[in-house]
């Protein structure tokens, strides 16, 4: 139990550290004058403000720790949320389906919807690997890239369209998923993370440097947009186009809506397959693998095959998403497949509550939707976003939906709090 | 007439410079409960790990005979194959349950191989084709059978990690039995159980034997060992120092000095005063 | 009448919504061996952990040498010459036996390190054999020995033992209990012992408490409790 004196001392020490840290960053400012020379100005007031704020924050935090009420039941809240999830999920689905059809809705909103939906699909795909099987994959963007580049190259060299390439992209990505799976079979936790991260980077570097195949940093252009039974969405109108066939004026919104429904369908496919697989021996084997790999072996489960299937299936959905990404943008380059993408998708899965489908949707809306909507706040946008994320992780460390639904029950299924569930780190 | 189910011949396990098991040989008969006892660090769990495929023995052989004509060399098989083809199941000293899954789910994972075979390459059942539904129903029935035997039926939908200690031990056994083994290896099943729970454990183990599964157990609880074992093997420093019935072992001088100690403090009726006299 | 070394009054502990301990009153006098018996799930380990501050008691008081330690953080309690060999052993698997023991001794800044080490080796010769081996490579029973030894290295005044006999060979159990008695008689070490092995525990202890579903239902001297028919029926049938 710290007395007030101890708290003051602690806060002073932290403020001192802040002074040292902020001194060079905030207290000094480099600039240049008209003559082109470097100038150095000091900002003592800003520095003092930062130090004072740090002191106050630390002080209040320590006071709060001393006197806070006994922690209430995060489990109960989550249980209510999960029960409400029964209604939230269908409601969100209806909203998602209806959204583009709202009268007067702007193209940019539908486009945002496409973006969010793409990340939802990526999240659902990664959820299989990280959330269900407990394999910490930091290189998921590799499969996104494989999917995108397969389509781009197939269309460039063989003239194949989106719909033909979609299954091929998934298949190729799944194959690469297994290629990743083999060398990492014996790795756990942090080591697995590092190797998968490296894998993601290797794919990106190969794409960047194999210029003759992929065009290198210049990327691949003129990737065809998807057609609707052969009808294109060209703005030129006329025969063979959507606008021509249905006798309406060509509008960019038409293609956007089409793209929106494609990604919605793909995402829902991912969701459906995941939900079905959870109830099958394979899905249960994935979850058992996360809980205790050694026990799995002792029960006769082939751990190697279980891991490989997890990587392959997760990768396949990443490949589908990549194929869609290519057709939507009509142009891809290695810049779209950096580590940040892997990290973003992983953050979505973790923020949502590993293993929860609904959680991924909510998290994607927050992580992708919020920064877009906050555009007007300019430079404060990422600051607020960062603070919001930190706050969420402090309050709900296991994610939005912190419960797990058993896949089978004798009586009424009881939700299991995530504090009981393994994160697959061992 | 019982015959040999499991034979261990000249089993040696070395970890670098440390020899944990040294030329161990013994046999466990079909339909028997065989106990492996010995001081801490004698190598008992190491032997188990060799039998169940977690370690590859340095030398020696471990053979299981499903029928006298059909034998398998366990020391040449991988861990999961020993469980699947060898039909050897085990429990762990430190309890390894799937904590975040319900009791029933734990028991269904144990029946994975059978269920997976009914799914049609894992894919068709996703589409609802095939006899998976029927197979799952069967699996749930089998799970219920073992839940009843271990008195866990009311807790079937609870998280495995939320069960009290004794119930977790029983669940681990139920889960092992759901793999339909011919040999169940139990690593200290009675550890941490009070005398009443130990007695219930004895009943459970006898019931398992009655259903046709042989048992091999590591145990320190002499009550369990003496009451239900048909055959006892004593290890010390990686070697066998005694092999016989419970009564024979009890009176073996080597076993007493290495493991049991003198005196019979198991006797609840022994006078208390003598113990306390020397105390404050 | 001097005050007890450790005194619990009206202690209530919760895990979330579940009440694990209900109005627990318990005393341990200096120089005593007190045992706490009860079935699995009764709350014995919870009681030990509450004394050490993790989880803290929600209400009630815990006094040690007269000072209120109810809300004290665990690491400060450890500095008060209270040592615990907790449930589940909790040795440091990647550290050697020697390093584990050093960790035990560091809280008293390695006072009398050699003397304590000799004591440990006399008690657990196995640990001397395995002195430079990693903790994680020890067998379960050896790890239990290590946990108890590590607690002893800090020269405690009050020793809390949570199921010390768990996983130990009968001979070793006898040795440990004999050692506890010896330490208690020669150095006045006070011991609070949680045990499934009610028979041996009640013989060893001066006094005992019975915990059922988080409530203390009985208290008395070791001999008294051993003679009670309810105790014999519930905790002493069969077993070792």
Describe this structure as you would to a colleague.
The complex is a heterotrimer of chains A (426), B (280) and C (240). With 426 residues, chain A is mainly α. Chain A contains 16 helices and 4 strands. Chain A has helices at residues 4-27, 44-67, 74-98, 107-132, 141-158, 162-181, 189-209, 211-214, 242-246, 252-278, 281-291, 293-298, 303-329, 339-352, 357-373, 380-395, and strands at residues 28-32, 38-42, 403-404, 416-417. In chain A, a hairpin with a 5-residue loop joins β1 (28-32) and β2. The radius of gyration of chain A is 25 Å and the shape is globular. Chain B is 36% helix and 24% strand. Chain B has 11 helices and 10 strands. Chain B has helices at residues 44-51, 79-84, 103-110, 112-117, 132-149, 165-177, 195-210, 222-228, 246-250, 253-260, 273-277; strands spanning 4-15, 18-29, 33-37, 59-67, 70-73, 88-90, 183-187, 214-218, 231-236, 239-244. In chain B, the strands form 2 sheets. A 6-stranded mixed beta sheet of chain B has the order 6-7-8-3-9-10, sandwiched between helices. In chain C, the strands form 2 sheets. In chain C, strands 6-7-8-3-9-10 form a 6-stranded mixed beta sheet, sandwiched between helices. Classes of the chains: A mainly alpha (426), B alpha/beta (280), C alpha/beta (240). Chains in contact: A-B, A-C, B-C. The interface between B and C is large, with 44 and 46 residues.
Please specify the SSE layout and strand pairing.
The complex is a heterotrimer of chains A (426), B (280) and C (240).
Chain A: H1 4-27, E1 28-32, E2 38-42, H2 44-67, H3 74-98, H4 107-132, H5 141-158, H6 162-181, H7 189-209, H8 211-214, H9 242-246, H10 252-278, H11 281-291, H12 293-298, H13 303-329, H14 339-352, H15 357-373, H16 380-395, E3 403-404, E4 416-417
Antiparallel strand pairs in A: 1-2, 3-4
Chain B: E1 4-15, E2 18-29, E3 33-37, H1 44-51, E4 59-67, E5 70-73, H2 79-84, E6 88-90, H3 103-110, H4 112-117, H5 132-149, H6 165-177, E7 183-187, H7 195-210, E8 214-218, H8 222-228, E9 231-236, E10 239-244, H9 246-250, H10 253-260, H11 273-277
Parallel strand pairs in B: 3-8, 3-9, 6-7, 7-8
Antiparallel strand pairs in B: 1-2, 1-4, 4-5, 9-10
Helix pairs in contact in B: 3-6, 5-6, 7-8
Chain C: E1 6-15, E2 18-28, E3 33-37, H1 44-51, E4 59-64, E5 67-68, H2 74-78, E6 82-85, H3 97-106, H4 113-123, H5 125-129, H6 140-152, E7 158-162, H7 170-187, E8 190-195, H8 198-204, E9 207-212, E10 215-221, H9 222-227, H10 229-235
Parallel strand pairs in C: 3-8, 3-9, 6-7, 7-8
Antiparallel strand pairs in C: 1-2, 1-4, 4-5, 9-10
Helix pairs in contact in C: 3-6
């Amino acid at each position: 139990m710290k007395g007030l004196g101890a708290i003051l001392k602690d806060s002073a020490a932290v403020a001192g550290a802040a002074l040292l840290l902020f001194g060079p960053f905030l207290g000094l400012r480099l600039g240049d004058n008209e003559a082109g020379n470097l100038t150095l100005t000091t900002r003592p007031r800003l520095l003092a403000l930062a130090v004072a704020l740090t002191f106050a924050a630390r002080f209040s935090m320590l006071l709060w720790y001393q006197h806070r009420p006994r922690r209430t039941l995060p489990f109960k809240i989550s249980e209510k949320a999960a029960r409400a999830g029964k209604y939230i999920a269908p409601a969100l689905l209806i909203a998602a389906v209806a959204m583009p059809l709202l009268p007067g809705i702007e193209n940019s909103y539908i486009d945002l919807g496409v973006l969010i939906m793409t990340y939802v699909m990526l999240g659902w795909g990664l959820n299989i690997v990280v959330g269900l099987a407990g394999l910490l994959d930091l290189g998921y963007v590799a499969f996104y890239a494989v999917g995108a580049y397969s389509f781009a190259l197939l269309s460039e060299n063989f003239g194949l369209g989106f719909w033909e390439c979609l299954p091929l992209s998934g298949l190729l990505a799944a194959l690469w998923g297994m290629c990743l799976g083999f060398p990492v079979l014996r790795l756990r936790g942090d080591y697995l993370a590092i190797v998968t991260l490296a894998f993601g980077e290797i794919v990106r570097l190969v794409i960047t440097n194999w210029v003759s195949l992929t065009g290198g940093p210049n990327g691949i252009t003129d990737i065809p947009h998807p057609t609707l039974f052969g009808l294109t969405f060209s703005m030129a109108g006329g025969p063979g186009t959507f606008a021509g066939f249905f006798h309406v004026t060509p509008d960019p919104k038409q293609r956007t809506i089409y793209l929106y429904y494609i990604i919605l369908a793909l995402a829902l496919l991912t969701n459906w397959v995941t939900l079905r697989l959870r109830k099958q021996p394979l899905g249960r084997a994935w979850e058992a693998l996360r809980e205790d790999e050694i026990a799995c072996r002792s029960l006769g489960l082939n751990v190697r095959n279980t891991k490989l299937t997890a990587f392959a299936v997760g990768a396949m959905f990443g490949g589908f998403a990549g194929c869609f990404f290519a057709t939507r943008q009509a142009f891809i380059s290695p810049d779209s497949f950096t580590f940040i993408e892997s990290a973003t998708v992983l953050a979505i899965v973790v923020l949502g509550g590993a293993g929860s489908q609904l959680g991924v949707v909510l998290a994607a809306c927050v992580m992708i939707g919020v920064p877009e909507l906050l555009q007007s706040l300019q430079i404060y946008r990422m600051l607020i976003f960062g603070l919001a994320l930190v706050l969420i992780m402090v309050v709900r460390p296991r994610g939005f939906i912190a419960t797990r639904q058993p896949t089978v029950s004798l009586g009424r299924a009881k939700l299991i709090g995530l504090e009981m569930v393994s994160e697959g780190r061992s | 007439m019982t015959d040999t189910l499991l034979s261990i011949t000249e089993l040696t396990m070395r970890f670098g410079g440390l020899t944990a098991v040294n030329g161990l040989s013994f046999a466990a008969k079909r339909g028997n409960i065989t106990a492996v006892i010995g001081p801490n660090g004698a190598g008992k769990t190491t032997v188990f790990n060799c039998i169940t495929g977690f370690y590859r023995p340095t030398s020696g052989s471990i053979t299981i005979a499903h029928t006298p004509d059909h034998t398998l060399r366990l020391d040449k098989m991988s861990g999961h194959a020993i469980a699947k083809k060898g039909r050897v199941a085990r429990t762990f000293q430190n309890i390894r349950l799937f904590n975040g899954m319900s009791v029933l789910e734990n028991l269904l994972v144990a029946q994975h191989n059978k269920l997976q075979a009914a799914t049609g390459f894992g894919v068709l059942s996703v589409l609802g084709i095939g006899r998976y539904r029927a197979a799952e129903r069967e699996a749930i029935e089998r799970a219920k059978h073992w839940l009843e035997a271990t008195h866990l039926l009311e807790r079937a939908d609870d998280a495995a990690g939320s069960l009290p200690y004794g119930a977790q031990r029983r669940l681990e056994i139920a889960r092992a039995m759901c793999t339909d083994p011919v040999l169940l290896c139990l690593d200290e099943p009675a550890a941490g159980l009070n005398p009443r729970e130990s007695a219930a454990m004895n009943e459970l183990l006898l019931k398992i034997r009655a259903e046709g599964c042989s048992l091999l157990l590591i145990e320190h609880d002499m009550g369990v060992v003496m009451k239900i074992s048909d055959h006892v093997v004593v290890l010390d420093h990686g070697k066998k120092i005694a092999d016989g019935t419970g009564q024979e072992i009890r009176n073996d001088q080597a076993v007493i000095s290495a493991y049991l100690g003198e005196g019979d403090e198991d006797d609840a009726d022994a006078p208390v005063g003598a113990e306390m006299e020397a105390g404050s | 009448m001097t005050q007890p070394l450790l005194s619990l009054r009206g202690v209530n502990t919760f895990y979330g919504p579940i009440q694990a301990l209900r109005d627990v009153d318990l005393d341990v006098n200096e120089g005593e061996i007190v045992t706490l018996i009860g079935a699995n799930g009764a709350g014995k380990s919870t009681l030990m952990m509450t004394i050490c501050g993790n989880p803290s008691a929600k209400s009630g008081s815990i006094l040690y040498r007269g000072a209120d330690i109810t809300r004290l953080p665990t690491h400060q309690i450890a500095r008060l010459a209270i040592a615990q060999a907790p449930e589940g052993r909790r040795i440091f698997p990647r550290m050697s036996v020697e390093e584990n023991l050093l960790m035990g001794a560091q809280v008293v800044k390695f006072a009398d390190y050699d003397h304590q080490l000799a004591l440990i080796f006399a008690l657990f010769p196995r640990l001397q054999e395995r002195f430079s081996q990693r903790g994680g490579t020890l067998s379960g029973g050896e790890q239990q020995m290590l946990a108890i030894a590590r607690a002893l290295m800090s020269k405690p005044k009050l020793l809390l033992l949570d199921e010390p006999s768990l996983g130990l060979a009968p001979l070793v159990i006898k040795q440990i209990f004999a050692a506890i008695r010896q330490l208690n008689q020669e150095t006045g070490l006070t011991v609070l012992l949680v045990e499934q092995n009610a028979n041996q525990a009640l013989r060893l202890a001066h006094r005992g408490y019975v915990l059922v579903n988080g409530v203390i239902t009985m208290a008395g001297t070791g001999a008294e409790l051993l003679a009670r028919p309810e105790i014999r029926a519930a905790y002493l049938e069969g077993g070792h």
